[in-house]
Amino acid sequence: MPTLVMKFGGTSVANLERIANVAEKISREVERGYNVIVIVSAMSGKTNELIGWVNDTSDIYDAREYDAVVASGENVTAGLMALRLQEMGVSARSWQGWQVPINTTSAHSAARFVSIPRDNIEAKFAEGFRVAVVAGFQGVSPEGRITTLGRGGSDTTAVAFAAAFEAERCDIYTDVDGVYTTDPRITAKARKLDKISYEEMLELASLGAKVLQTRSVELAMRYGVRLRVLSSFDETDETSGTMVCDEEEIMESKVVSGIAFSRDEAKVTLVTVEDRPGIAAAIFGPLADAGVNVDMIVQNISEKDYDEVHPGAVTDMTFSCPIDQINRARKAMENAKANGSINYENLIVDADVSKVSVVGIGMRSHTGVAAKMFRALAAEGVNIKVISTSEIKISVLIDRKYIELAVQTLHDEFDLGAPADDV
Ligand code: ASP
Ligand code: MG
Fold it and tell me: From ligand 2's centre to the CA of 175, what distance in Å?
């Protein structure tokens, strides 16, 4: 029998009624002839509540106990879902991570998969069970302790199971009906995409379109898992949602597929650092050690001398990072200055910036996308502070107050509201 993986996020299993509703969807796939592996999240809000309980109980941060507590939300949903399915006459049982076992590294709260042996679940399918309800987001370490994968990790569990069991498809049920050209809350012209390539989805996911955990898309791309995003709140069929797939499968002709943005960014400029070999390493090493996720980097060579002791060129170094890491970034730079590994005249923080990006595999073969983007923003009086590009993406940092305007402008400029012609 072919295998299907179905994943349900927190809002899709938020209460007993929602659980009963998605159990119907699972039962329909069983009737279609699939053995189904269901991956569940904790009921919405549960994981936050559990994290709160851990923090309120103790200042001692023991990541192993954090994981033991926080993983439990998924266990509850898995058991309830199995019960509900049994109630409907579908042979189902729940699986916690260690029972499968889902073997992971020991990196608590950020564990990675090591292996997912098929034997135990397959033995149950062979006995006539039709559904394995697996608790997402968790695994077991080589030491036999419970691990978790990081927030949003159930998506990654689902893709890993689809890869391990060579599933026909991995359906990710959520509270939106697919992947949009941009956030529909920003512009009513946002349009659902029928298909999007792994590469584009990876950019959109990491740029803050919160539909899928980035790692799940990486994993899907690596193993060629056909991934579909769809809503558990709608009636759905084979054509629902957005398919994340290989770019060969996509016939749409648009150069740009989507506009992504991330609101809460910050920008740091180190004014007049020495321009010498090793300076970038001396800056970004301590930032990495402090756990700062540096995103964009700009270095400006200045012709003027630093001072009499340091003749030669100086440079300004600018980088961006998520706003909640800004204090760590500042501390790391101040410490590096204090211990003499770098020197700068001034450290300027701009905490009121956002990033907006245009994404599309079509950019590989089309020129002029950047110019078009910059012209459109200029026409609206939006100043660009930092620019970065990749093969299929152009990102700019702008003042946060312009973010909605910028997204709407670019969405119009690249004509994303209109359906693409097939080529
Ligand atoms: N329940 C976990 C979280 O809220 C994992 C997930 O739902 O993907 O992050
Ligand atoms: Mg999620």
Answer: 10
DSSP structure class, residue 43: P
For residue 290, give the DSSP letter.
T
User: How many angstroms does the Cα of residue 392 sit away from the middle of ligand 2?
Assistant: 25
Tell me which of 54, 72, 75, 151 to substitute to probe ligand 1's pocket, judged by most ligand atoms within 8 Å of the beta carbon.
151
pLDDT digits (tens, 9 = 90+) for 167-182: 999 999 999 999 999 9
| Residue nearest atom 9 in ligand 1 by C-alpha distance | 151
Q: Is the pLDDT of residue 305 over 70?
A: no
- In angstroms, the CA 159 to CA 182 distance is 24
As a whole number of angstroms, the distance between CA 44 and CA 9 comes to 8
Ligand positioned closest to the Cα atom of 45: 1
pLDDT score, position 249:
87
pTM: 0.87
Average pLDDT over residues 381-406: 96
CB of 40 closer than 8 Å to CB of 77? yes
Q: What six digits make up the tokens of 141?
A: 């370490």
* Nearest-ligand number for the alpha carbon of 136: 1
**Average per-residue pLDDT for the chain:** 93
Q: Which residues contact 304 (CB under 8 A, 6 or more apart)?
A: 313, 314
pLDDT of residue 187: 94
What is the Cα–Cα distance from 2 to 128, expressed in whole angstroms? 14
Q: Whose CA is nearest to atom 6 of ligand 1?
A: 152
Half-sphere exposure of 96 (CA within 13 A, CB side): 13
Query: What pLDDT shows up at residue 418?
Result: 84
The pick from 70, 102, 137, 219 for probing ligand 1's pocket by mutation, whose C-beta has the most ligand atoms within 8 angstroms, reads: 137
Beta-carbon contacts of residue 333 (< 8 Å; ≥ 6 apart): 268, 270, 283, 286, 287, 342, 344, 347
